[in-house]
Amino acid sequence: MPELPEVETIVNDLKKTILGKKIVSFESGFKKAIKGGNPADFKKNIIGKKIIGVERIGKNIVINLNSGMTILVHLKMTGQLVVKHGTQNVEPDSKNLKPRTQNLSPTEKHLHHCFILNKGSLCFYDIR
User: Residue 100 and residue 68: Cα distance in Å, rounded?
Assistant: First the structure.
């Protein structure tokens, strides 16, 4: 499990990379991790929203959207947030949630959620 300094480092890196970006799509291969409603409603509520803040509360990563909605991320024991920049082909295939690419890394099979941004993506991977 990441300790507080590691979570703080992740938050600082996210501030540099995703602030001001707009969420254009979202896919999830782990629907039960979306709390407080169904995944379709969650997706509908975040599409088109801009990321205006990233902060840490304890070991939680809080992503604030311009709609007033907040996305809470906990990395659990082995979770990772991965930012892909630019216009890389990161649009996930919603059937298996693997990016459409021929050279999948071993970690791609552990992709749980992916926020497609107007420039790049923010994806959550976890081997558990």
Answer: 32
The tokens for 118 are: 């107007």
- State pLDDT tens for residues 41-94: 999 999 999 999 999 999 999 999 999 999 999 999 999 999 998 755 455 555
Continuous segment of H or E residues that includes residue 8:
helix 4-17
Q: What is the pLDDT of residue 103?
A: 46
- pTM over cut 0.90: no
Residue 43: CB atoms within 10 Å:
16
For the domain covering 4-125, report its CATH number: 3.20.190.10
Q: Which of 22, 12, 124, 38 is nearest to 74 (CA)?
A: 124
Return d(Cα 128, Cα 80) in angstroms, integer.
11
Residue from 46, 26, 34 nearest 73 by CA: 34
Structure tokens at 24: 């254009």
DSSP state of 43: H
